[in-house]
Amino acid sequence: MARQILKLNHISAKGLDRLPRDDYEIASEFTHPDAILLRSHKLSADDIPESVLAVARAGAGVNNIPVAECSSRGIPVFNTPGANANAVKELVAAGLLLGSRGIIEGIHYVNKLYGMTDMAELHRTLEAHKKEFKGGELVGKTLGVVGLGAIGSLVAEMALTLGMEVVGFDPALSVEAAWRLSSQVKRADTLSALFARSDYISLHMPVLDSTRGLVNAELLAVIKPGACLLNFARQEIVNEGALVDALNAGTLRKYIADFPAPQLIGRKDVILMPHIGASTEEAEDNCAIMAAEQLRDFLENGNIRNS
Ligand code: MLT
Protein backbone atom coordinates (compact mmCIF):
# COMPACT_ATOMS: atom_id res chain seq x y z
CA MET A 1 0.00 0.00 0.00
CA ALA A 2 1.29 3.48 -0.91
CA ARG A 3 2.54 5.62 1.96
CA GLN A 4 0.67 8.88 2.48
CA ILE A 5 2.60 12.14 2.75
CA LEU A 6 0.71 15.15 4.09
CA LYS A 7 2.15 18.17 2.25
CA LEU A 8 1.41 21.42 4.08
CA ASN A 9 3.20 23.91 1.79
CA HIS A 10 4.19 24.27 -1.81
CA ILE A 11 7.13 21.90 -2.30
CA SER A 12 9.10 21.97 -5.55
CA ALA A 13 8.21 19.28 -8.12
CA LYS A 14 11.85 18.19 -8.29
CA GLY A 15 11.62 17.24 -4.62
CA LEU A 16 8.24 15.52 -4.94
CA ASP A 17 9.66 13.48 -7.83
CA ARG A 18 11.95 11.79 -5.29
CA LEU A 19 8.83 10.17 -3.82
CA PRO A 20 7.67 7.84 -6.65
CA ARG A 21 3.89 7.93 -7.13
CA ASP A 22 3.64 4.13 -7.16
CA ASP A 23 4.87 4.11 -3.58
CA TYR A 24 3.74 7.51 -2.25
CA GLU A 25 0.49 9.45 -2.29
CA ILE A 26 1.03 13.17 -1.68
CA ALA A 27 -1.83 15.49 -0.73
CA SER A 28 -2.68 18.44 1.49
CA GLU A 29 -5.28 16.44 3.42
CA PHE A 30 -5.08 12.95 4.90
CA THR A 31 -6.67 11.58 8.07
CA HIS A 32 -3.91 9.09 8.84
CA PRO A 33 -0.75 10.25 7.00
CA ASP A 34 2.55 8.41 7.41
CA ALA A 35 4.60 11.61 7.35
CA ILE A 36 4.36 15.39 7.08
CA LEU A 37 6.34 17.42 4.54
CA LEU A 38 6.30 21.20 4.95
CA ARG A 39 8.16 24.46 4.51
CA SER A 40 7.02 27.37 6.71
CA HIS A 41 3.57 26.17 7.86
CA LYS A 42 3.34 26.64 11.64
CA LEU A 43 2.71 23.15 12.96
CA SER A 44 1.32 22.54 16.44
CA ALA A 45 1.51 19.25 18.33
CA ASP A 46 -2.27 18.85 17.91
CA ASP A 47 -1.86 19.01 14.11
CA ILE A 48 0.24 15.83 14.10
CA PRO A 49 -1.99 12.75 13.81
CA GLU A 50 -1.04 9.59 15.76
CA SER A 51 -0.15 7.84 12.48
CA VAL A 52 2.73 10.22 11.67
CA LEU A 53 6.17 8.56 11.70
CA ALA A 54 8.29 11.56 10.65
CA VAL A 55 8.16 15.29 9.88
CA ALA A 56 10.42 16.80 7.22
CA ARG A 57 11.03 20.49 6.67
CA ALA A 58 12.30 21.80 3.34
CA GLY A 59 14.36 24.49 5.06
CA ALA A 60 17.03 24.92 7.71
CA GLY A 61 15.18 26.29 10.76
CA VAL A 62 12.75 24.06 12.63
CA ASN A 63 11.17 26.73 14.83
CA ASN A 64 7.80 26.23 13.09
CA ILE A 65 7.71 22.60 14.29
CA PRO A 66 7.05 21.39 17.87
CA VAL A 67 10.36 19.52 18.00
CA ALA A 68 10.22 18.65 21.73
CA GLU A 69 6.74 17.12 21.38
CA CYS A 70 7.84 15.20 18.28
CA SER A 71 10.88 13.85 20.18
CA SER A 72 8.75 12.78 23.10
CA ARG A 73 6.52 10.89 20.66
CA GLY A 74 9.55 9.34 18.91
CA ILE A 75 8.92 11.25 15.67
CA PRO A 76 12.14 12.36 13.94
CA VAL A 77 12.14 15.90 12.51
CA PHE A 78 14.31 16.34 9.42
CA ASN A 79 15.61 19.64 8.08
CA THR A 80 17.87 20.66 5.19
CA PRO A 81 20.88 22.56 6.53
CA GLY A 82 23.01 24.12 3.82
CA ALA A 83 20.53 23.39 1.00
CA ASN A 84 19.51 27.05 0.74
CA ALA A 85 22.74 28.59 2.08
CA ASN A 86 23.81 30.07 -1.24
CA ALA A 87 20.46 31.78 -1.75
CA VAL A 88 20.64 33.38 1.71
CA LYS A 89 24.27 34.40 1.14
CA GLU A 90 23.31 36.19 -2.08
CA LEU A 91 20.50 38.08 -0.32
CA VAL A 92 22.92 39.09 2.44
CA ALA A 93 25.20 40.49 -0.31
CA ALA A 94 22.23 42.59 -1.44
CA GLY A 95 21.63 43.57 2.21
CA LEU A 96 25.20 44.81 2.54
CA LEU A 97 24.80 46.94 -0.58
CA LEU A 98 21.44 48.28 0.60
CA GLY A 99 23.09 49.18 3.89
CA SER A 100 26.02 50.96 2.30
CA ARG A 101 24.44 52.86 -0.60
CA GLY A 102 21.38 55.06 -1.04
CA ILE A 103 19.78 52.52 -3.37
CA ILE A 104 16.29 52.34 -1.82
CA GLU A 105 16.03 56.12 -1.35
CA GLY A 106 17.31 56.68 -4.90
CA ILE A 107 14.80 54.27 -6.44
CA HIS A 108 11.94 55.80 -4.44
CA TYR A 109 12.97 59.25 -5.63
CA VAL A 110 13.14 58.23 -9.29
CA ASN A 111 9.71 56.58 -9.04
CA LYS A 112 8.27 59.84 -7.68
CA LEU A 113 9.30 61.51 -10.96
CA TYR A 114 6.80 59.36 -12.88
CA GLY A 115 5.10 61.53 -15.49
CA MET A 116 8.01 63.98 -15.94
CA THR A 117 8.48 63.78 -19.70
CA ASP A 118 11.03 66.51 -20.33
CA MET A 119 14.42 64.74 -20.41
CA ALA A 120 16.40 67.90 -19.67
CA GLU A 121 14.23 68.70 -16.65
CA LEU A 122 14.54 65.10 -15.44
CA HIS A 123 18.31 65.31 -15.70
CA ARG A 124 18.43 68.67 -13.85
CA THR A 125 16.18 67.39 -11.06
CA LEU A 126 18.22 64.22 -10.54
CA GLU A 127 21.51 66.15 -10.54
CA ALA A 128 20.16 68.52 -7.89
CA HIS A 129 19.13 65.66 -5.59
CA LYS A 130 21.91 63.12 -6.21
CA LYS A 131 23.92 64.16 -3.16
CA GLU A 132 21.04 63.01 -0.93
CA PHE A 133 21.70 59.43 -1.98
CA LYS A 134 25.44 59.31 -1.34
CA GLY A 135 26.67 56.19 0.43
CA GLY A 136 29.93 54.59 1.50
CA GLU A 137 31.94 51.69 0.12
CA LEU A 138 32.26 48.23 1.61
CA VAL A 139 35.94 47.80 0.77
CA GLY A 140 38.01 48.03 3.92
CA LYS A 141 34.96 47.95 6.21
CA THR A 142 34.60 45.20 8.80
CA LEU A 143 31.82 42.63 8.67
CA GLY A 144 31.17 40.70 11.87
CA VAL A 145 29.55 37.32 11.18
CA VAL A 146 27.79 35.78 14.17
CA GLY A 147 27.45 32.04 13.56
CA LEU A 148 29.82 30.38 11.11
CA GLY A 149 27.70 27.41 10.05
CA ALA A 150 26.59 26.61 6.50
CA ILE A 151 25.26 30.13 5.80
CA GLY A 152 27.57 32.23 7.99
CA SER A 153 30.72 30.71 6.52
CA LEU A 154 29.50 31.41 2.95
CA VAL A 155 28.65 34.99 3.96
CA ALA A 156 32.15 35.40 5.44
CA GLU A 157 33.81 34.18 2.24
CA MET A 158 31.55 36.38 0.08
CA ALA A 159 32.44 39.47 2.14
CA LEU A 160 36.16 38.77 1.66
CA THR A 161 35.63 38.86 -2.11
CA LEU A 162 34.07 42.32 -1.68
CA GLY A 163 37.28 43.49 -0.02
CA MET A 164 35.83 43.58 3.49
CA GLU A 165 37.67 42.61 6.63
CA VAL A 166 35.78 39.72 8.22
CA VAL A 167 35.61 38.79 11.86
CA GLY A 168 33.59 35.81 13.03
CA PHE A 169 32.17 34.52 16.29
CA ASP A 170 30.79 31.03 16.84
CA PRO A 171 31.13 29.31 20.21
CA ALA A 172 29.86 26.05 18.67
CA LEU A 173 32.13 25.95 15.62
CA SER A 174 33.16 22.40 14.76
CA VAL A 175 36.83 21.61 14.10
CA GLU A 176 35.97 20.57 10.49
CA ALA A 177 34.10 23.84 9.86
CA ALA A 178 37.00 25.82 11.33
CA TRP A 179 39.40 24.08 8.95
CA ARG A 180 37.18 24.82 5.95
CA LEU A 181 37.00 28.53 6.77
CA SER A 182 39.47 30.93 5.15
CA SER A 183 42.34 31.94 7.42
CA GLN A 184 41.46 35.53 6.49
CA VAL A 185 38.34 35.27 8.66
CA LYS A 186 39.57 36.56 12.01
CA ARG A 187 37.97 35.41 15.25
CA ALA A 188 36.49 37.59 17.95
CA ASP A 189 36.88 36.22 21.49
CA THR A 190 33.47 37.49 22.55
CA LEU A 191 30.27 38.69 20.94
CA SER A 192 30.81 42.13 22.54
CA ALA A 193 34.25 42.36 20.93
CA LEU A 194 32.68 41.57 17.54
CA PHE A 195 29.94 44.18 18.04
CA ALA A 196 32.49 46.80 19.12
CA ARG A 197 34.67 46.50 16.02
CA SER A 198 32.25 45.75 13.15
CA ASP A 199 30.80 48.26 10.68
CA TYR A 200 28.31 45.62 9.57
CA ILE A 201 27.08 42.68 11.65
CA SER A 202 25.29 39.70 10.10
CA LEU A 203 23.45 37.13 12.24
CA HIS A 204 23.40 33.47 11.20
CA MET A 205 22.07 31.13 13.85
CA PRO A 206 18.91 29.19 14.68
CA VAL A 207 16.44 30.25 17.36
CA LEU A 208 17.29 28.31 20.52
CA ASP A 209 16.82 29.13 24.19
CA SER A 210 20.44 30.33 24.09
CA THR A 211 19.95 32.64 21.09
CA ARG A 212 16.46 34.07 21.68
CA GLY A 213 16.96 37.78 22.46
CA LEU A 214 20.75 37.37 22.17
CA VAL A 215 21.11 40.82 20.61
CA ASN A 216 19.97 42.82 23.63
CA ALA A 217 20.45 46.30 25.11
CA GLU A 218 23.79 45.31 26.65
CA LEU A 219 25.22 44.21 23.31
CA LEU A 220 23.73 47.12 21.37
CA ALA A 221 25.32 49.48 23.92
CA VAL A 222 28.81 48.45 22.79
CA ILE A 223 28.07 48.47 19.06
CA LYS A 224 30.44 50.54 16.92
CA PRO A 225 28.60 53.86 16.37
CA GLY A 226 27.11 53.98 12.88
CA ALA A 227 27.10 50.20 12.44
CA CYS A 228 24.48 48.39 10.40
CA LEU A 229 22.85 45.17 11.67
CA LEU A 230 21.69 42.49 9.22
CA ASN A 231 19.34 39.78 10.40
CA PHE A 232 18.63 37.09 7.81
CA ALA A 233 18.27 34.43 10.51
CA ARG A 234 15.21 34.89 12.75
CA GLN A 235 13.53 37.97 14.28
CA GLU A 236 13.46 36.38 17.76
CA ILE A 237 17.27 36.64 18.01
CA VAL A 238 17.03 40.42 18.34
CA ASN A 239 15.29 42.11 21.25
CA GLU A 240 12.97 44.48 19.42
CA GLY A 241 12.71 47.10 22.18
CA ALA A 242 16.49 47.34 22.52
CA LEU A 243 16.79 47.53 18.73
CA VAL A 244 14.34 50.46 18.52
CA ASP A 245 16.23 52.26 21.33
CA ALA A 246 19.57 51.82 19.51
CA LEU A 247 18.04 53.09 16.25
CA ASN A 248 16.43 56.07 18.02
CA ALA A 249 19.74 56.89 19.71
CA GLY A 250 21.44 56.72 16.30
CA THR A 251 24.17 54.35 17.51
CA LEU A 252 22.75 51.72 15.18
CA ARG A 253 22.58 53.37 11.74
CA LYS A 254 20.47 50.77 9.97
CA TYR A 255 18.67 47.46 10.57
CA ILE A 256 18.14 45.20 7.58
CA ALA A 257 16.10 42.05 8.13
CA ASP A 258 14.33 39.35 6.19
CA PHE A 259 11.10 39.52 8.22
CA PRO A 260 8.30 42.05 8.61
CA ALA A 261 8.13 43.33 12.22
CA PRO A 262 5.06 45.54 12.86
CA GLN A 263 6.77 48.17 15.02
CA LEU A 264 9.64 48.57 12.53
CA ILE A 265 7.69 48.84 9.26
CA GLY A 266 7.97 52.26 7.64
CA ARG A 267 11.08 53.48 9.50
CA LYS A 268 13.69 55.15 7.26
CA ASP A 269 16.52 53.42 9.12
CA VAL A 270 15.01 49.95 8.66
CA ILE A 271 14.77 47.78 5.55
CA LEU A 272 12.50 44.75 5.89
CA MET A 273 12.05 41.94 3.39
CA PRO A 274 9.26 39.31 3.41
CA HIS A 275 11.41 36.28 4.39
CA ILE A 276 12.73 35.64 0.88
CA GLY A 277 16.25 34.51 1.78
CA ALA A 278 15.56 30.98 0.58
CA SER A 279 13.10 31.93 -2.14
CA THR A 280 15.03 31.01 -5.26
CA GLU A 281 14.19 28.24 -7.67
CA GLU A 282 17.52 26.56 -6.95
CA ALA A 283 17.20 26.69 -3.15
CA GLU A 284 13.59 25.49 -3.23
CA ASP A 285 14.64 22.54 -5.41
CA ASN A 286 17.66 21.72 -3.19
CA CYS A 287 15.61 21.86 0.01
CA ALA A 288 12.72 19.85 -1.42
CA ILE A 289 15.04 17.16 -2.81
CA MET A 290 16.96 16.85 0.46
CA ALA A 291 13.79 16.74 2.58
CA ALA A 292 12.08 14.18 0.33
CA GLU A 293 15.18 11.95 0.18
CA GLN A 294 15.56 11.99 3.95
CA LEU A 295 11.91 11.13 4.40
CA ARG A 296 12.12 8.27 1.92
CA ASP A 297 15.35 6.92 3.43
CA PHE A 298 13.69 6.90 6.83
CA LEU A 299 10.37 5.40 5.73
CA GLU A 300 12.00 2.72 3.57
CA ASN A 301 15.27 1.98 5.40
CA GLY A 302 14.82 3.46 8.86
CA ASN A 303 17.84 5.77 8.35
CA ILE A 304 17.87 9.07 10.22
CA ARG A 305 19.80 11.99 8.72
CA ASN A 306 19.76 15.64 9.88
CA SER A 307 17.28 15.03 12.65
C1 MLT B 1 15.04 28.33 6.51
O1 MLT B 1 14.91 28.12 7.70
O2 MLT B 1 15.89 27.75 5.83
C2 MLT B 1 14.08 29.28 5.81
O3 MLT B 1 13.11 29.72 6.69
C3 MLT B 1 13.53 28.61 4.61
C4 MLT B 1 12.27 29.17 4.03
O4 MLT B 1 12.13 30.35 3.74
O5 MLT B 1 11.35 28.38 3.80
UniProtKB/TrEMBL annotation:
Keyword field contains Metal-binding: no
Keywords: NAD, Oxidoreductase
Catalysed conversion reaction: (R)-2-hydroxyglutarate + NAD(+) = 2-oxoglutarate + NADH + H(+); (2R)-3-phosphoglycerate + NAD(+) = 3-phosphooxypyruvate + NADH + H(+)
GO molecular function per UniProt: NAD binding; phosphoglycerate dehydrogenase activity
Pathway(s) it belongs to: Amino-acid biosynthesis; L-serine biosynthesis; L-serine from 3-phospho-D-glycerate: step 1/3
E.C. number(s) listed in UniProt: 1.1.1.399, 1.1.1.95
Function summary: Catalyzes the reversible oxidation of 3-phospho-D-glycerate to 3-phosphonooxypyruvate, the first step of the phosphorylated L-serine biosynthesis pathway. Also catalyzes the reversible oxidation of 2-hydroxyglutarate to 2-oxoglutarate.
Family: Belongs to the D-isomer specific 2-hydroxyacid dehydrogenase family.
Protein name: D-3-phosphoglycerate dehydrogenase
Organism, scientific name: Mangrovimicrobium sediminis
